Amino acid sequence: MAETEKTSLSRSAPEAYPKRTRYRSDSDFVLNKRVPPRPAKRPNEFFITNKSDFKGQLARVFKLLENNEEEEIILRGLGTAVLRTVNLSLQLQEKLGPQYATEVFTYTVHLVDDIEGVPDVNEQTRSNSAIKIRIFNKNVQVQDRSSTGEVKNS
Q: Region Disordered: which residues (predicted)?
């Protein structure tokens, strides 16, 4: 008798809950995001992303500064990686001590996306926040190259 009750309960349960319907997008266009522009990479420059290994980047940058292989390093982050870039620089600052200084620059990058399927519009622009963090030894004089190629002593 208990077995017949179980089967009757299991049959009535699905009727009480309707199936979920999936909604399709009504748009006929496709948005392709282009790769953001990057400046020419230097050996002391690191681009931080959310997909990269945090501990690995921390160890690699720390090793470069600790062994005096590089006098300064530059960390760059774009979009959601800004927070991760700041965290990495704070961890480095804590490990390296007071002899190293940090300079932070924030800016906006204008990105271009391709739109396929719309007859009149081919591109769409959007803005994204970015950060550049320079970590350097206070006791060592570093030559800084500006975008014009001039050498400046800081």
A: 1-21
